[in-house]
Amino acid sequence: MTGDNHLDSSPSPTFGSSEVGDTNTVADRWRAIAVDRGDAVAIRTPEQSITFEQATARVDDLARAIVDITAADTPVAVEIESDVDSVIAMLAVWCAGRPLVMVDPFLPEDRRATILRQSGAHLLTPSTGHDHELRDQTTAQPAVEPGPDDPAVLLFTSGSTGTPKGVVLAQRTPVNHARDGRRFMELGPDDRAAVLLPLSFGGGLDALAMSLLNGASMLLWDVRRRTTTGLREWLAAEGATTAHCTPSLLRSWLGELGAEDAVDSLRLLSTCGEPAHRSDVLLARETILPHGVFCCWAGASEVGNLAFNLFPPDREVEAGPLLVGIPASDKVVRIVDEDGSDLPTGSTGEVVVESAHVASGYHANPELTAARFTTLPDGRRRYRTGDLGRFDENGELALLGRGDDAIKIRGYLVEPLEVEAALRSLPWTIDAVVTADREEARLTAHVAVDPEKWSPSPAEIRHELGKTLTPWMIPRDIVVVAEIPRNERGKVDRGALPPPPPRPTPERPRGLTEMALHRFWSEILGLEPESFGRHDDFVELGGDSLAAAKMLSEVQHHLQLEVNTAMLSEAPTIAQFAQQIEAAAKERSKNASGATLIRLRRGTGDPIFLVAGAGSLATSLTPIVRALSGDRPVYAIQSRGVEKRGRADHSVRAAARRAIADIRSVQPHGPYQIGGYSLGGFIAVEVAARLTKAGETCHTVAVLDSVVDPVLAQRLSGDGPKVLQRIRDSLRSLTATKETLPDRTGADEENKPGGSPLQRAVQEIALKALVLTAGLVPLSTPVQWVVFFRLGTKMIRRHRPSPYSGPITVIRARTNTDDPALWRHFTSGKVEFLDIDGDHISMIRAPHATETARAIDQIIGDGTD
């Protein structure tokens, strides 16, 4: 390291009789290694195995066939799979002195056609070379002798920023990759390297060179076709010493494993292709790599390997994205300003790479080549990456994203990668990506969460980000998704990211009421005041049932106005809601009386009635209602006392009687369409039983993941111990979520679980007393939720279903382990089940609310059975 902010990485010593320093082309390097390794295994898949000697014979034979059918400068395209034949074809093209064009079988047809057209490549067919007699390796002569600067690969970029570009890599480039593999990963003949990267892309090409061209046996497992089922067992059986994959694959694979799944032979695990994080290192250490080295390495199509960072098992890992580390072999990495001058250590600037091993340029594109590449006086080439980075005091490189990704918000420069790191540090997050809109100066975050831990609303995510980020760094739009879409290379497919809900241009609030509401919304939803206006929708801003309860409480406390869920549902914007609460201040309307019936959607035709879960406001069902098809009116029924003072119902039958009165106030006679979520499902079935007994008709009752308590299950089935064992896991997950809700939502310390036995006993007595007086005593919102959840559990346990003969359809979350036969005790009619991906909580929130709504649509159809 010099005084300037750049680092020069020199080569390391070589090994054995086949020294990299003696060979400057991939063709020569392969032949030297193959002679040295002889009958050792070169490539192995679960179906095939081939030695270096056998591979050489096939490579030479196919190389001669390629020379026979193609001109000297004609690129040769090969469809690349993770198999023996593909590796043989790649080596043969190099040994024939032809540029290799790698075609991935998962490419869309139009992209594939574009690559073949732009490259002018001859597409190698499976029959090529079959008419040539296989020759013994000792007598076969090389087809041609390519030079170090002859093109070896036309590597087409992903095209995520435009038309795919063909990056020209010389024969010397894979040799340099082999040097990196030996220097940083100590790859050699004793290794069995599991390459889990697609060979048809840059990372897979580098891993092939680093392993096979160092004499290691290469183990190939096609993750995209095989998935990760059985992968850990295969690696253990094969005695894999190293494994190489992307961070996203690592997370999805290792997330299924535990400490008992360690692979004892594995000494190194490497990732590339996207930023790795501290959580990735910890996940590897907790599963397959308890005693090995974690290596993250970075690169690009134009520069090959850029940097490596090694984490032995005793090295501490700082939170956030990992530094990419020390520059690769024979690479000078500089951090420069806009004028190209070197910046001091610690300063952020553009990353520039100088080396004899960067790309020669872009295929058939001299203008773009001249704009990004410069030939230096000593023959090396300089490439301006367009990435931002900086060196720390230890000489390790940090990449900070594309220079054109950075965005100024309120005058501050914000890097999306920093926000991504904060999102990934949240306990629920399994994947995240942050994009910047320069024109509107705003960030959008897409967050994939683990529903087994929690299914947060955008408002909750913003609040958590606010603990570590400055306000202007918190994304205005947060979209919770089941998974982040990725392309065939495993990179984020930004074009497939679902857009956030459309927002009106922010308009400043008018009048004192709107100004107060604007302030409340900003604080509760975690939004900068400038980012939303008087016409923005509360739910589309990320507000959930809990946020609504908090906001209504704030309004009542500070403005001394009578407001409730019904008003917010009817008027979800600041402008509309302000009109509602100002009218309520002048005249107490029906809605201000704390009614349990809340209209969530206007419409025509027979209404749909949905009963909310224990302790949940009617607005908790808003995401589902908005996703329902058709235009039928929808009403939600919430527990008495959950919002306004009033003694809560203490049995399912009492709640059903109250619900029937609410329903008949809107629709005096059937046929009725009824459903319910959680506790509400039991109430809905009881409502249907009582209405049919009264001579009314009910369509199929939609039961949304109503979990049968073990006590009730024992009483219904008379098989208590077996039933308890079968469904305990389901209830344990749900109960833990509800019982710890005060801690998640900011309740006082004394409301948190834990403490001494005496404290817990006192808390339990107090909680039982609160349950007895539920609805009568004003409580903080989090405690109110827990009290009503406890009450709901008590109601289910004591429930004795009324005789019902109508149809029921149960929409089950994937975590629901109830015995389906239990529902035969609730009706003698038809019982059907629909399964969805979400868990008990996430099924009524984005993104799973849409799937739940589709299931309800399937049940209600056109309103007839």
TrEMBL record:
Source organism superkingdom: Bacteria
Residue ranges of domain Carrier in the record: 508-585
UniProt entry keywords in alphabetical sequence: Hydrolase, Phosphopantetheine, Phosphoprotein
GO molecular function: hydrolase activity
Location of region: Disordered: 1-22, 125-148, 490-510, 735-757
Record's keyword annotation contains Plastid: no
InterPro entries (UniProt xref): AB_hydrolase_fold, ACP-like_sf, AMP-bd_C, AMP-bd_C_sf, AMP-binding_CS, AMP-dep_synth/lig_dom, ANL_N_sf, PKS_PP-bd
SUPFAM superfamilies in alphabetical order: Acetyl-CoA synthetase-like (SSF56801), ACP-like (SSF47336), alpha/beta-Hydrolases (SSF53474)
Cofactor: pantetheine 4'-phosphate
Biased composition (Polar residues): 8-22
Name of protein: Alpha/beta fold hydrolase
Species this protein is from: Gordonia westfalica
